[in-house]
């Protein structure tokens, strides 16, 4: 004797709309997979026999090294800042985020210039300290140097994750460790680090994604990664299908890691105790304090101060030649397209999390996870697959209307950066108990009212964080913009890159500087919001 | 019969039903305690009543209206049921008065002051949830529910999260408030001591079925099976005449000579007297005495035969669908 | 407010695609030097025709044109590597056009025998050598660079760069695959370091003493020698330019062109031809020569002074389309011989 459901939430409506939007986002992946079946296997075997081994080894090496450096630059300062008291720690806390404002390729080009034979360091030593100049005269375009540079550019992902995790662990554990006589080191390695596994791995995942996606910096340093292989078959061999096959393989490898990480970490998902104090606990000895300062300063100086000083120096030198009207144009373009795209992403992400909360349906949960996976596709691949998609059905869609239009550009941005918007929203929505929704329903709130009056206000900071993160990422974005942008529409990132690869780095400086300044200001703003969030999440 | 539940069945997985054929009714204004172990389905039951979950079969009838049966499902917001959840959820971004009046129908507006007064929240009206203690949060949830004049009030583990020293005063408060408003109430808890003295009736729930449903005193004095008996208090197991009997501690007394011997293990101070723990053969017995008795002393105990409780089967059993 | 935003978004989404305006040209260009913008501005001032440019990597532009098909709004395709023009021709993305008023001003060996594209500037891929450590007499031909005597002294950028691919194509076309393969092996053996960085980095490396000779495009030296950065100036002065294969029986130095062609379905063909005419005119050619240190396709126009100082040289008369035709083979040889 079964009773038919007449649930207040229109299950089917929610399911269908979720699936529809998810498909829109996942479709390029499907187009890619379909093109795999058209592969010319001769080309593929050629690649396989000649180059793939080399590519794969370089990729693995670069990923490992970069991970190593970003872990060091991220975890150590996070530990000191979360659990110790020393002067300047709050300032460091803000500054440590800032390298995120500098795109990786800018960091790479800048450092290769700084370190080069004609750059400031070697020029200076040649003039004044000639004894050292011979030692300094090395070929710095090595994979190891690239890994350090990328580590400096990407460690903030790990720093952020650790900051939040270490702070939320709560003084209870740490007090307990002190009571048991464990030193700060022991506490760190035996207790805090294992508990923070989940956070660290999710930060590391983002770092690895960025390394795999990077093309400009990697190419310049003469490192041939898997992604280089994709572009080589695409460009040099004009074999789009092999490129797609490689892209799909890369994607599958990433997915495997993604699920592996999920799987092994699911046992370690701890719920942080609420109502814990955040007082910093360890008092530092004099020598420890010095170490703390050094550990925090190194990433800040090398990851942010040196690059930005170099860029500012270039701007000053080129000042009289700056085309300000062009700068304003580019600023307007960049800001408007980034704002619109970030808005669309956040709206979709918020709706998805809301549907997830109230419908509890398997379908919704699965699909809202799937849409994050497109992050693993290199931007250029997404752009290309969209073009293929749109042009392969000329009857259905007037491709003239779409290609070279903002629609496609923003669509591609949304696909690539959906994961960035979803992540903070997901953890915020999950933090609130389901009894909020039950209470709302019991009090007679319609789903729409529940959404507007309850979920939006209580997730306000997460919504803002998601928006800002998406905005900063899209502002820095390069490959998709290069391929899909409409006529006469350049962004700051595009102009920077074009000058840089044409070996005109000083001319690119003003545009780099704009990106970095906007990004830095927003990051500082973001930091304040996150800090407030950590405070309010108590109790 | 204000609330009538007939043959209610609920399962997530057909092989593991949560609630099987539940039948009971509640009169208007009564406070019922629904006792069950953690995970036994108590909260699910409340959610079924409130319409937040669908039942698989059965009929729910409240105040003459069918809320749920084969053909009908009244949506939650039309059921006139108030629900206070276990974690006293108050929306963090609005203050007390805004929480109480959220989505409140105009016809209840003039009642607000009365309920604020009744729940003692007058001075806390503009506070925000993070500025309230656990007990205060609970009272806000209560006011929020009561101001809508519900036919039925559901409280999920209302006392579990409170400090024990204020528990009894809060229990009194809740009782006073509910009785003042004559609201029919179902209270769900895993610990009987929380609600023993404020319930009109107690329903013991185990293995998906109703074990016993009666006034507290009946439950205590005439438990229908051993499981129910044990829930409401200690039991001494006495084997004699080839039969197994059970006895409440307060019915066992020290005696000068009897056929029941015991060795004292410990004397526990409980305030007005001592609760003595003794060992007899392989059984642990409890009884009360006004003085402590030294350890290892041998004593005799005795009791009135009519106080003995006897059950059909051994004392780990409770009713299942087969042997009810 | 909400309505305004909605309107704006809709407009942005669907507007700005492309206008079917007759006073316009749409250019898909790989070139994006400041001088190009200058040229376009001058053209617009002169003719009132608005120029819309989309700048990207040549391969990406080709892919885009291919996928856009008949509906492509492209009028002109401009690249810095003739091999890409050949490729576009092969893929049927361009249309032939004849205009002797334009081609009469161009050195005949630089023209497209098939009549699809028109050269706008040209450059040579030359050998630069350290003034301190190499004597000019030691250099002769590209082939000689594979000689043992240069072991560990040669610098060149990655094989994925199209300039190297074009050079390799010319050698394959001239000498055949077998000889070229041996040559490439010799080059790889002589490398001072794994290929990395760009052309100017190779020159800087010579100045730094990390190598003695390098293969670079001619105009980069001009750029170094006119740089405001003292260090770059020094690096430029530390080397000299050598045009290979200039001997009596030698074929001449390898050259490549920046070229322009009309897209197959160009919606504004007349305007497109106007622009081609302008860019090959004396006025525009002088602008190029003075700004980018390239060579003019007009034999009457002399290169910049700095470039003139390197002397005259004879060009490899090879049909430039070969730089595209032999490209696939060239890349295979790169990969087989390990030139990364």
Largest interface, with counts of residues having CB < 8 Å to the other chain, equals: A-C, 60 and 61 residues
- Silhouette of chain C: globular
Distance between the termini of chain B: 24 Å
Mean pLDDT across the residues of chain C is 88
Helix fraction of chain B, binned, reads 10-25%
- Order of SSEs of chain B, N→C? EEEHEEEHHHEHEEEHHEEEEEEE
Sheet with the most strands, sense and barrel status of chain C:
10 strands, mixed
**Number of helical regions of chain B:** 7
Biggest beta-sheet profile of chain B? 6 strands, mixed
Radius of gyration of chain C: 21 Å
Classify the secondary structure makeup of chain B into a structural class: alpha+beta
Report the order of strands and helices of chain C. Answer: HEHEHEHEHEEHHHEHHEEHHEHHH
Query: Which value, in Å, is the CA radius of gyration of chain B?
Result: 23 Å
Q: What order do the strands of the largest sheet of chain B run in, or round the barrel if closed?
A: 6-7-8-3-9-10
| Helix content bin of chain C | 40-55%
Assess the beta-strand content of chain B as a share of residues: 25-35%
Total count of strands of chain B? 17
Strand content of chain C: 15-25%
Q: Name the poorly predicted regions of chain B.
A: none
Topology record:
The complex is a heterotrimer of chains A (539), B (324) and C (340).
Chain A: H1 11-36, H2 41-83, E1 84-85, H3 89-95, H4 104-115, H5 120-128, H6 130-136, H7 143-169, H8 171-179, H9 184-195, H10 197-213, H11 216-220, H12 226-236, H13 240-266, E2 282-283, H14 286-318, H15 324-359, H16 362-370, H17 379-391, H18 399-402, H19 406-431, H20 434-442, H21 447-458, H22 460-476, H23 479-484, H24 492-501, H25 505-536
Parallel strand pairs in A: 1-2
Helix pairs in contact in A: 1-13, 1-15, 1-16, 1-17, 2-7, 2-10, 2-12, 2-14, 4-7, 4-14, 5-6, 7-10, 7-14, 10-13, 12-13, 14-25, 15-19, 15-22, 17-19, 19-22, 22-25, 24-25
Chain B: E1 3-13, E2 16-26, E3 31-35, H1 42-50, E4 57-62, E5 65-68, E6 81-84, H2 96-100, H3 112-118, H4 134-146, E7 152-156, H5 164-181, E8 184-189, E9 201-206, E10 209-214, H6 216-221, H7 226-232, E11 236-240, E12 243-247, E13 253-255, E14 260-269, E15 274-280, E16 283-289, E17 298-302
Parallel strand pairs in B: 3-8, 3-9, 6-7, 7-8
Antiparallel strand pairs in B: 1-2, 1-4, 4-5, 9-10, 11-12, 13-17, 14-15, 14-17, 15-16
Chain C: H1 2-14, E1 24-29, H2 34-47, E2 50-55, H3 58-68, E3 76-79, H4 82-90, E4 94-95, H5 100-103, E5 117-130, E6 154-155, H6 162-175, H7 177-190, H8 199-207, E7 213-217, H9 218-225, H10 230-237, E8 239-242, E9 255-263, H11 269-279, H12 282-292, E10 295-296, H13 305-308, H14 322-325, H15 327-337
Parallel strand pairs in C: 1-2, 1-3, 6-7
Antiparallel strand pairs in C: 3-9, 4-9, 5-7, 5-8, 5-9, 5-10
